[in-house]
Fold this protein.
Amino acid sequence: MSKLLDTIIGRSSTVGEDDYMELDLASFEGAEGEETASMYVKVAAIADLKETPKVKDEVYNGNIVIVDISKLKMDKITYERVLKDLKEVAKDVNGDIVGLGDQKYIVITPMSVKISREKIGGAR
């Protein structure tokens, strides 16, 4: 370990294979039976109006939902109705809603979660 610290602070320039640690990312993922989170980030896709209630339920249950709405672009009337429904949900729960990626995706948040409209880094 001291060899790794020496490399980090500049005393040594060689790092051996023994200086690295394998990370088991599966240990960070929640296993069944473990404590559950109070909020989840869910991913959904809406292709027609019938799929909207599932997304609304997730937001009402306190989850953040990222929705792929790219398939709705073909039908302007359905697109507008779905967006209207989802905006009402965000308003009902005092959450937030924002479009991303040329309006291909929207993010809907539950109460007390607001979405910043400022980008961090990258081109604007």
